[in-house]
Structures are given as C-alpha cells and as structure tokens.
Amino acid sequence: MDWTAVKVITSSEAVEAVSYILTNEGAVGVQIDDAKDFANLKPGRYGKYGEIIDLQEIPHRKNGAAVTGYFPRNVFVPELISTIKGRVAKLKDYQLDPGAGLVVSEAVNNKDWATVWQKYYHPLRVTSQLTIVPQWEDYQPSSANEKLIFLDPGMAFGTGTHPTTRLMIEALEIVARGGESMIDVGTGSGVLSIAAKQLGVGQVAAYDIDEVAVRSAKKNIDLNPVAADVKVGVNSLLDGIHTQVDLIVANILAEIIVPLIPQAFENLKPGGRFLVSGIIKDKADLVERELKGHHFVIDQKLRMKDWYGMIAHKAVEGQE
Ligand SMILES: C[S@@+](CC[C@H](N)C(=O)[O-])C[C@H]1O[C@@H](n2cnc3c(N)ncnc32)[C@H](O)[C@@H]1O
C-alpha cells in the first residue's frame, strides 16, 4: 500500500489532456498505454529508446488508451477519484472524446513502483544550469555550466519532474548567490537541498515528517558528493527548531505552508528569503495574505501550469 495508481480508461485523442489532469492533481509519474502507439509498429522495429520491440512480448491495449498516474500514499483516494472523474468527463466541453472515462485505483507496492519508475524516468533539464539524472543513467553534461543532480527517487516525492519542484528550483536559482545557510522543509527525495548545493548554497539542513522520505533523501545525498554535508532529519515543519538562516524553502501544500509561516519568520535572519511552492491557484491569495500578515514582503510570484510559488523576504524592522 505504498503508492496509489489511478488508471483512467480513455480515448487515444484524450491521452495528453488526461495526463495533464493526473499531473495537475499531484501524480508524480504518468504512464501511458495507447493502442495508437502500437498500431503502426512492426515486429523488430526500433522503439523510442533504441530497443527492439517484440509486439508479442509487450502487453498492450488493442483499442483506446489507459493513462495511469502514480500518487503518493498519503492522498485521499475517494476524493481524488471523484475529482479526476469529473475533470475527465468535462473534456467533452473541449471537444475531446473522454472514451470510457472509467477511473480505477489500485495500491502499488515498493517493488512495482521502482520498476515503473526506471522505465519512465529519464534525464530532465530543469533549468539552464541544472539537469536531474536518474541514478541508473549514464549521462554526459553538454557543457561545463550544466550541473547534475543524481536521484534515485525511490518512494519519496521529488523526482524534479513535478511543476512544484521545478518552480522551486527556478526560485532557488533566482535567489542563491553562494554561501547562504538554508533549511529545506519537506525535503522528500532531497532534490531541493542537492540543487541548492549545486548552486553554491552553504550549510543546509533538510527535514521531513516522513521517515521514508528522510531515508530516501540521505540515499540521494550520498549520490551527490557536492551535497555531502547536508544534514537530514525527521521533523514536522520547524517544530523545536530555533536558528537564524538566510534561506528557507518549502514545497508543501498551502494548508501546511500556513502554519509554517510564523516559524519561518522566527528562523530567518532579517532580510532572509522564504521560498514557497506547491500552491494551487485557489490558495495563492491565502498564502500571500498570511505571508504579508506575518511581516513578509513578497518579492516575486512564479507560476507553472496551475501551480504557484512565491519568493518572499523577512521585512527588516524600521526599513519596510
Ligand atoms: C510536495 S513534497 C516536496 C518534496 C521536495 N522538496 C520537492 O520539492 O520535490 C512535500 C514533502 O513534504 C513532506 N511533509 C508533509 N507535511 C510535512 C510536515 N508537516 N513537516 C515536514 N514535512 C512534511 C512530505 O512528506 C513530502 O516529502
């Protein structure tokens, strides 16, 4: 019961739209089985990644398409399914055929998940400077400026493919000057801490409420010598943490960011930056209001697809 796979039976023409819906609802990976992809293939032809395809050996759909989204285990499945069903049915309004529109969920265990991942996860250039590389890929940077983040995402959120993570890496690139102290709240796979170290950030402490995430982050930090001195531990938000740092990053749902705001204020140096992501459109106003209410100044708002992020700084008393 470690992951929840939500499979949508749909038409070939709706594959892109359904993949978007699943990602938008928080799927960390999407797998497509589209009969159309197999329709014109002849046995022995080369596949997308250079492999020889034996149609007899690949189980595939004979008609229509199935799009499966993989969600972290903490999603509330009945609500998720009902939302996805509603959004798939609405595709008709955009002249897209939702096909059967059936939505089913199943639990996926660790072993199956790892296998799925390795098939669908490939190097991803997230910004002009940073590329995320699955641990098992042999990847050569295209220039000296391209820095690599090696990840084995395992069971933790944070493959770098999700818009909320990408927003945060962009925000980090905007603010990092080198040598800052930083806290990564809700580190997941550790991706943001590793990205920060690649951008020259100094001391980093990373926390997650989930022990599995902490183990995964530690494993990923071991894969990236640049991040060797990142400290990782189990902690809920910044409970019991009393320090003064230059940067705090948190890619968590808005509802969780809200109680973090006063804690972030307390743990930031005057002028220190608070980077938040994981905010859906409907909650952007709430987060902005709470930030301003706790003496943060919003420097920049970022958006990717339907996700929002913000760069704020702790107001300096007497100056702002
Ligand atoms: C959306 S993931 C972000 C992972 C990674 N930082 C990234 O940007 O891709 C959110 C993470 O926050 C963690 N989390 C949720 N509630 C938390 C809390 N109260 N305190 C600390 N971590 C929490 C989850 O376990 C999960 O790993």
TrEMBL record:
Location(s), subcellular: Cytoplasm
Q: Does the keyword Lipid metabolism apply?
A: no
Q: Where would you find the membrane-spanning parts of this chain?
A: none
Pfam families associated with the record: PrmA
The protein's Enzyme Commission number: 2.1.1.-
Q: Where, by residue number, does S-adenosyl-L-methionine bind? A: 165, 186, 208, 251
- GO BP: methylation
Catalytic activity from the UniProt record: L-lysyl-[protein] + 3 S-adenosyl-L-methionine = N(6),N(6),N(6)-trimethyl-L-lysyl-[protein] + 3 S-adenosyl-L-homocysteine + 3 H(+)
Tell me the keywords, alphabetical order. Cytoplasm, Methyltransferase, Ribonucleoprotein, Ribosomal protein, S-adenosyl-L-methionine, Transferase
Q: Which GO terms describe its molecular function?
A: protein methyltransferase activity
- InterPro entries assigned to the protein according to its UniProt record, in alphabetical order: Ribosomal_L11_MeTrfase_PrmA, Ribosomal_PrmA_MeTrfase, SAM-dependent_MTases_sf
Per UniProt, the enzyme's principal EC class comes to transferase
Query: Which GO cellular component term is one of those annotated?
Result: ribosome
Statement: the UniProt record of this protein carries the keyword Ribonucleoprotein: yes
Primary localization: cytoplasm
Q: What does this protein do?
A: Methylates ribosomal protein L11.
Family, similarity comment: Belongs to the methyltransferase superfamily. PrmA family.
This protein is called Ribosomal protein L11 methyltransferase
- Source organism per entry reads Limosilactobacillus vaginalis
| Gene (UniProt) | prmA
